Amino acid sequence: MSEKRVYTFGNGKAEGKADMRNLLGGKGANLAEMNLIGVPVPPGFTITTDVCNEYFEKGKETVVSLLRDEVIASVHHIEGLMNSKFGDIENPLLVSVRSGARASMPGMMDTILNLGLNDEVVRGLAKKTGNERFAYDSYRRFVQMYGDVVLGMKPVNKEAIDPFEAIIEKVKAQRGISLDNEMTVDELKQLVDLFKKAIKEQTGKDFPTDPMDQLWGAICAVFDSWMNERAILYRKMEGIPAEWGTAVSVMAMVFGNMGNTSATGVCFSRDAATGENVFNGEYLVNAQGEDVVAGIRTPQQITKLGSQRWAEQQQIPEEERATKYPSMEEAMPEIFAQLDALQHKLEKHYHDMQDMEFTVQEGKLWFLQTRNGKRTGTAMVKIAMDLLHEGEIDEKTALKRCEPNKLDELLHPVFDKDAQKKAKVLTRGLPASPGAACGQIVFFADDAEKWHEAGRRVIMVRIETSPEDLAGMAAAEGIVTARGGMTSHAAVVARGMGKCCVSGAGALNVDYKARTVEIDGVTLKEGDYISLNGSTGEIYFGEVKTKPAEVTGDFADLMKLCDKYTRLVVRTNADTPHDAQVARNFGAVGIGLCRTEHMFFDNEKIKAMREMILSDTVEGRKKALEKLLPYQTKDFYGILKAMDGCPVNIRLLDPPLHEFVPHDLAGQQTMAEEMGLTVAEIQKRVDSLSEHNPMLGHRGCRLGNTYPEITEMQTKAILGAAVQLKKEGFNPEPEIMVPLIGIVNEFDMQEQVIRSTANKIFEEAGVEVEFKVGTMIEIPRAALTAGYIAKKAEYFSFGTNDLTQMTFGYSRDDIASFLPVYLDKKILNVDPFQVLDQTGVGQLIEMAVDNGRKTRPNLTCGICGEHGGEPSSVKFCHRVGLNYVSCSPFRVPIARLAAAQAAVEE
Ligand code: ADP
Ligand code: MG
Ligand code: MG
């Protein structure tokens, strides 16, 4: 089998291109593409993602032997273009070995730089370049990275700092210097020896001296890193399948650490936090790759504008800024001009915001990576709308560019302006990822997770973050770091997650051991409250009040664009006028599910409700229901008014009655007194209501069919409120929904009660209101017999929570004991209560819609339940021809976007 496993690139040619990202990974595909469009990139080659899968199937040795010839030939290819030789002691070629999956996973997998050095080669490198300091700086970096990634030299525990950093700190302390680049050549040499010794001591492994051995070690380590804990966690969070695998790119090194005409940096063609159309980024003179993102030295700005904004944030006067912290635009104007031209070129080429890495080696600019940049939800919307207005993309593309779930960030609360003005500013950092967050301070990722699980809101405070902190960052409300810039790990990851983040707050003195942070004389402990403003970089003392977000500007424009393409409309699940109003503001065009049971829970109402449930006779129940009627009427009046002119689908009483009765003695005593019964009698009645399987018990329409007086009262309340509103000049559109039917007769009986009650009300009032009577399809038998049911029911609403429960036979309340195992073992890929099971449950829905419409062609069909706000489920609803989805108010914009995307994707 002559399968091609390696693709080369270099000197304006490449065997791959941008659309081969599945095979070459995003990094590999774009390195090839940059070559093809004339962006300067060092030559190299990419080992495919298929090989990664092969590696985990067949093992290391087999794969190395399968790869050997192609890799060796490709190394020669680089040597030819670079005019140097891998492992040569006079004219050595050094390479980097980089990971790169189909979807970008920043910092999740490992990279090794300066590979190919050993004690002899380093001397050759020093001689060739006439720069001994550079040669040994590269060597110590290589030993450090290789030791970490390939030989497993990690910190011994979470409080410990990186073992290599510890050695560096020690050497620097001996000389009383503070910066890495102040070390002498001898000290760098000393570091190499100390590093190797420490590796041998901690891991028992010798450092490999043969460059080819080093290369194989590194390639295999990159594959292995695909299965490291943090990469697995990241994939889980982002829904990236393990089968995609990572590619490995090997390329000639270019050096940003050759002196003051060399540099390395990261840049974005637009602002990844706000979406603003300004080129921005950070760089470091005389440094290498990871230095910028690792937050070791605080980097400088690329553009003058960026530098001025940064200085303002740090309250540094312009003069001081210009001399001490000049931008690249000012310090290296020619290189800056080239960089600016190329970033424009790349954005134009990809029609999207680019996140780029570059290195300047002795005055020559090289690109090392470009990708569509990760961004916040706000930036996502702004960039899509701006690119649309600039004519770079069309409307449909703009819709597709926005990820529905990411809109969630735009709906998060923001600081209340007045509260913010009054808040005490502790210090400032960089506005790395916008948003408002308050919570209790924690210092470690595992604590963040634990506290979050215990229901607390936390802010993670770190000197800097690393990929190990991922789960903690996800659990936190916000992240603060003392070091690092706008492109630090914390900043990039936080923006990707849509988490509020303030980075590089230099005034923070974090003490991990004492679990305290000192800020200008104020010491805060673990558990103390702080608030963060990710848009200004301000850190406040205590909790600052927040208020709900609004749909305005680009967000509103995007929503308008959705309406232009969508067929499926979005309603909301709401039980109160307030929720109805919130949802309306977010663009809901009706209520898809108004549950009535929540209305019974306040004091007076629950008493009347209990009285109704606990009485033995029809008369007793009627008397209690009489008391409930005015309350219910008022509730429906409020909701119908808030949704004036839009349909409001009200579900008749649904939950099992035992949920309403008092289970504690005190409650039972009160009930006994009020009803003139003994406590024992009340207890007997409560006991009689308990069921073995309440979800399959006396609930839904079974209540209305055994106690028709409940349905009668609720109908009176709904239509009474509607009549009242109509008289006042409003336009109520009530829909009355019978829940949980499995047999058409169940519906019939309820419908009769509803219609006869309606007639009475309309007659008494002398006013008629149009209304519909429909049903919920949530029992498999109802779906199977939908054709019959549609003869009577005027609409269907799919209650997919119960339908999923009964189709799978999983009790939603008991699923926790096996669901995690099922997900782990891949018996299930997703929780079917969160993501609609399109194959099984979906088939029932599709069939019910088709058969229902055969009987009643204009049958309105919708869905309520958790799935109505989940993008992939919404798209399914579009495809099977539902009229609407209904979801909680805060998911309405998400569902609107998903619905529009479904229409555009068709
Ligand atoms: P990540 O996926 O974590 O960003 P990368 O593979 O992009 O890791 O590499 C880490 C850093 O090393 C980046 O800053 C990159 O620009 C730099 N780098 C990678 N390869 C080279 C090279 N051949 N020459 C110079 N710098 C490099
Ligand atoms: Mg990496
Ligand atoms: Mg990178």
From TrEMBL:
Assigned EC number? 2.7.9.1
Q: Which family does it belong to?
A: Belongs to the PEP-utilizing enzyme family.
NCBIfam families cross-referenced by the UniProt entry: pyru_phos_dikin
What is the protein named? Pyruvate, phosphate dikinase
- Reaction it catalyzes: pyruvate + phosphate + ATP = phosphoenolpyruvate + AMP + diphosphate + H(+)
Question: Where is composition skewed (Polar residues) in this entry?
Answer: 306-316
What region holds the PEP-utilising enzyme mobile domain? 457-537
What Pfam families has UniProt attached to this entry? PEP-utilizers (PF00391), PEP-utilizers_C (PF02896), PPDK_N (PF01326)
Keyword field contains Nucleotide-binding: yes
Keyword terms of this UniProt record: ATP-binding, Kinase, Magnesium, Metal-binding, Nucleotide-binding, Pyruvate, Transferase
